Amino acid sequence: MGSNITRTEESTPHPSPAELERANQEIKLLNEKLTAENLRMGAELEVTKRLQEMILPQPEELEIEGLDISGYMEPADEVGGDYYDVMYYIPTESLPLVLVT
């Protein structure tokens, strides 16, 4: 009985040099587009970071007698939405806490 199994390497045609060159050129073009897009997005994130820093209160604005206020901001590495959450409180002598992440 003969075997019907053939090796993949033998049954798959190899691309021609012209096909390889076209594929290589397409890869180069896609790489250039991705590089340009990454640069654009990086510049947009830098502008966004500066805008966020500009709207943060200055340290002297946070000096309120009787309160110890601290904060931390870490700009995003990629584009996304902002999330705001307000924690409600029962009116007493406490202040509401607002979290912005």
Description of the structure:
The chain has 101 residues and is mostly helical. The chain has one domain (14-68, 79-100). The protein is 43% helix and 8% strand. The protein contains two helices and two strands, in the order H-H-E-E. The protein has helices at residues 8-11, 17-55, and strands spanning 84-87, 97-100. The protein has a two-stranded antiparallel ribbon with strand order 1-2. The radius of gyration is 29 Å and the shape is rod-shaped. The termini are far apart. The mean pLDDT is 77.
Which keywords apply here?
mainly alpha; 101 residues; two-stranded antiparallel sheet; 2 helices; rod-shaped
In short:
43% of the residues lie in helices and 8% in strands. The chain is mainly alpha-helical and 101 residues long.
Fraction of residues in β-strands: 5-15%
Low-confidence stretches: none
Can you tell me the overall shape? rod-shaped
- Oligomeric state: single chain
Structural class by secondary-structure content: mainly alpha
Strand numbers in spatial order across the main sheet: 1-2
C-alpha end-to-end distance = 71 Å
Number of domains: 1
Major sheet characteristics? 2 strands, antiparallel
Number of strands: 2
Compute the gyration radius: what is it? Answer: 29 Å
Average pLDDT across residues?
77
Task: Give the SSE string.
Answer: HHEE
Task: Please give the share of residues in helix.
Answer: 40-55%
Number of helices: 2
